[in-house]
Amino acid sequence: MEELKKRIREEGKVIDGDILKVDQFLNHQIDPMLMKKIGDQFAAVFRPAGVSKVVTIESSGIAPALMTGLAIGVPVIFARKKKPLTLNGGALVTDIYSYTKEVRNPVYLEKDMLSPEDRVLIIDDFLANGEASLGLTRLIEMAGATVAGIGIVIEKAFQDGRKRLDRSGYSVFSLARIASLDHNRVSFLDD
Ligand code: G4P
Ligand code: NA
Ligand code: NA
User: Fold this and answer.
1) Are the C-beta atoms of 91 and 106 separated by less than 8 Å?
2) Which positions in this protein are listed as binding 5-phospho-alpha-D-ribose 1-diphosphate (predicted)?
3) Smallest CA separation from ligand 1 atom 35, residue
4) Percent of the chain residues past pLDDT 70, beyond the cut
5) Tell me, what's the pLDDT at 1?
6) For residue 141, how far is its CA from the centre of ligand 2 (angstroms)?
7) Which parts are annotated binding residues for 5-phospho-alpha-D-ribose 1-diphosphate?
8) 2-188, what's its fold?
9) Of 70, 83, 57, 39, residue with least CA distance to 138
10) Which ligand is nearest to the CA of 154?
11) What are the beta bridge partners of residue 123?
């Protein structure tokens, strides 16, 4: 997505050669006009897969997921990092490993949110090692539902996540694919 790549080039800041900071439009301040276009793009790609729900994980996945759900016309669910006090039918839970913090953290999804008929599109802001996306696939499959695809706003193609998701057989589409952040410079895979 050219407009997204332009924003990354102009406003992204690289930290320590492997973290891309995009706090001007995605991770802190959110640009709703850009998110709208991101949602439209994901909808165009994944609508044919017969999506009935969009699932993401709080917090930064919510903005692109919401716009995707709006464009397709289906509900959006965010998995929670803290156990809600208000669970009705009980929670599905899985641990997600954080490479940066070297800890496992649980994420929760209320059991009744998904049913075996659901075809679920996963949306997330970043794909690095794939732990978050793979955790969401586990929650969706625990509910008996089907993963219809995985949409990623910014893929760090130099990390293992994409390979792991491809190997698991999921249909993955990323709007911007970063080949390298070496020397604190962004280069895209298709430059
Ligand atoms: P993984 O899920 O692909 O394995 O990613 P990883 O554990 O490495 O990432 C942990 C957190 O860091 C995630 O956010 C992820 O979106 C974010 N992240 C990973 N790489 C980058 C990057 O280059 N830039 C930015 N800005 N974020 C990155 P989170 O902890 O779940 O937080 P939230 O922002 O969604 O609340
Ligand atoms: Na994040
Ligand atoms: Na995220």
Assistant:
1) no
2) 128-132
3) 60
4) 98
5) 97
6) 23
7) 128-132
8) Rossmann fold (3.40.50)
9) 57
10) 1
11) 151
- Model pTM above 0.80: yes
Residues 6+ apart with CB under 8 A from 20: 8, 12, 13, 14, 126, 154, 156, 178, 181, 186
- Give the residue, 188 or 87, on which the prediction is more confident: 188
CA 26 to ligand 2 center in whole angstroms: 9
ipTM of the complex: 0.93
pLDDT tens digits, residue range 58-80? 999 999 999 999 999 999 999 99
Q: Give me ligand 3 centre to Cα 95, in Å.
A: 15
pLDDT for res 101: 87
Give the number of whichever ligand sits closest to the CA of residue 60.
1
Closest protein CA for atom 5 of ligand 1: 128
Q: 48 CA distance to ligand 3 centroid (A)? A: 25
Task: Locate the ligand 1 atom nearest the alpha carbon of residue 98 and give its number.
Answer: 7
Rounded Cα distance between 118 and 96, Å, is: 23
d(CA 149, CA 80) in angstroms, rounded, equals 20
